[in-house]
Each structure stands twice: as C-alpha cells, then as structure tokens.
Amino acid sequence: QLLRKRHIGNDIVTIVFQEPGARPFSPRALRSHFQHVFIVVRAHEPGTPRTAYSVAVVRPEETPLFGPGLAAGQRFPGGEGLREFLLAKAINGENAAGRGGRLGAMAARTRRQYLQELARAHATGPPLAAPHRGLPVLGGRR
After folding, report:
1. Above 80 in pLDDT, residue 66?
2. Rounded Cα gap, residues 80 and 84, in angstroms
3. Cis peptide before 68 (omega within 30 of 0)
4. 132: Cα separation from own chain's centroid
5. What is the model's pLDDT at position 40?
6. What is the Cα 138 distance to its own chain's centre?
C-alpha cells in the first residue's frame, strides 16, 4: 500500500500553457523530484481566426530525446492535431523519463520492491537466490 501512495500527486510530465506576452517559462520555478519533462505551449493571436500554438520541450540531459519531433518555428492550429501531438508527446516524455537517470533508478527500485512483496506474499517454497545485480532469476536460468 505504501509503495503506491508515495507517488500520488507527483507528475513526471507537466504541460504549461502560456498567454502571449508571458515571461519565458523556467523549470527552476517549480521544485520537484518527479517533474522531469515540461511541455510549454504558447498561444499566438488568441481569439482570432489565426490563433496558433507553438510548443517547446524542456527536459534534463539524462532524459533521452523522444518524439514526435518538432521543427524549428513550427506552429499548430488549435484543435485535434494539437491535442493528438500533445498527448503523444506527453506519453513519450513519461516513457523516456522512466528510462533515464534518477527517475529510471527510482522506477527500477519500486519494481524490485513490488516483486519482493509479491514473492513474500505468494511464495510457497524456499526463497530464490538473487543474482549479484538486478532482479531474481526465475526458472533456474541465469
């Protein structure tokens, strides 16, 4: 129970919407151990038929690059295309953050704790010997 609750309320990916004229976004303004990717969306000419949105991504160096890609100066009209792009970018950003650096190490530790708890709760025989590094080997092969 405790393993699950320690992450509630912490987002790995944060989408920031900015109005025209807003000061540039800095991820340093938000302190968190879990927020790794910021997708910054800026509105251009809002409230007109020419409303468009630019997108920028901020990530730590330890988080691998992820798609879909962005061309320099690319703008999106509002609507379904922007929504689908942001959804794909957010999902891929979370997956990339989970593979890199500190967050990847925390995710591996959490998975290991879940597996150890499952083994303690449901094992019927003697405990398996763990290899020097990583997860226990099941099925007798190394």
Report:
1. yes
2. 6
3. yes
4. 29
5. 93
6. 30
What's the whole-number mean pLDDT along residues 41-56? 93
Cα–Cα distance measured from residue 111 to residue 108, given in angstroms and rounded to the nearest whole number: 5
Is pLDDT of 135 > 80?
no
Torsion angle (degrees, nearest 10) of CA 132, 136, 140, 141 = -60
**Predicted pLDDT at 100:** 74
Mapped to the 3 state alphabet, what secondary structure does the chain carry? CHHHHCCCCCCCEEEEEECCCCCCCCHHHCCCCCCCEEEEEEEECCCCCCCEEEEEEECCCCCCCCCCCCCCCCEEECCHHHHHHHHHHHHHHHHHHHHCHHHHHHHHHHHHHHHHHHHHHHCCCCCCCCCCCCCCCCCCCC
Q: How far apart are CA 39 and CA 123, in angstroms?
A: 44
- Does the pTM surpass 0.85? The reply is no
The two tokens of residue 1 are: 């129970």
* Nearest by Cα to 3 from 118, 124, 137, 127: 118
